[in-house]
Amino acid sequence: MFYAPAGGGVSTYLNAKSRWLQRRSSVRHTILTSNMPSHDNVVTLPYLPVPGLHGYRWPWPIRRVTNILCELQPDIIEAGDGSSGAWASLHARDRLGIPAVAFYHSDTPRLLKRRFGRVIEAGGEWYMRTVYRDFDLVLAPSRLMVQRLAAMGVKRAVHQPLGIDSVMFRPERRDSSFREQIGVGPETRLLVYAGRFTPEKKLDILVDAVCKLGASYHLVLVGDGVTPPRRCPQVTVLPFMHNQDDLARVLASCDALAHAGDGETFGLIALEAMACGLPVVYTGGGIAELVDHSCGLRADPDNVGSMCGAIEALFARDMPALAANARRRAADHYDWNTIMPQLLARYEGALATVAPTVPEGNRRYVAD
């Protein structure tokens, strides 16, 4: 459901997986989505439009989605969210006698709590526990999300980080003309955020912090969404960038990444910025597992003053050393050439534990 033309980390992950597999393996990889027309290895699913999903479409009906999955005759299915597509994945799993993997990309109960309160969050946790307990393998991109799933009752989730293309994202992408293009002088300290403009990203904190810091700081916001950021002279808003070359150029041309959202399940944009040589100011979530003191600073969530202090403290440090540390940490530990073999090993393990095909309703499970 979250794979879309203007999607975030999920779309980036699936596109990177497709490219990697196409170049380095004989694996046939098909993406099923309700948000895009069929092309190449993408298959369009029927859908039900649901208000409030930021433009994403709910795959529907489940039986038809299940039939489409079965027609592809896959050896393994990965469900990228807990929507109706997850139930279709489980139904197809039982028909075909293959493993079904769930990847917990989005912390849905927490998002529900922000919007509707604790009671609805509890309902979301019950739903996630109900759907994910039947998968053969549940992957989570951060240890924090493994803990969150365990607290919901999903006890066997496994930590599997995502990755970045460290050849695409590197300091050499820096464009010396970028500052002139956005009307910023060479002495200005240039911060960047890239991602969807939604309430949970807390862009108002970033904008308020930069405005408070004064004219020596400037913030570049790259993306789009339902909550346009507040405009001020110290903020430049650029549209969502479909081309990763363009995004890498913008990131590498700035001085640091600033991220006020504390609910990221992973924080792929932080890694992409680090690979470009940018230290990171962050507030928590999965990003806290990617950044340490050698390449960034942590601010308190929902606190403009703390964000200001962390940004000022960052620029008071040895920025070239922070940049080198950020690049090294991202490229050495999170390049797709390191991460993708880990993921394939997870798939192989799931395939090895599933019994041969048996009639639907009589499937046997092997505990690991």
Automatic annotation (TrEMBL):
Pfam families on file: Glyco_trans_1_4 (PF13692), Glyco_transf_4 (PF13439)
Gene Ontology molecular function terms on file: glycosyltransferase activity
UniProt keywords, alphabetically: Transferase
Keyword flag Manganese: no
Transmembrane segments: none
Domain annotation Glycosyltransferase subfamily 4-like N-terminal: ranges: 8-165
InterPro entries: Glyco_trans_4-like_N (IPR028098), Glycosyltransferase_grp1 (IPR050194)
Keyword Chloroplast: no
Stated name of the protein: Glycosyltransferase family 1 protein
Species in which this protein is naturally found: Zemynaea arenosa
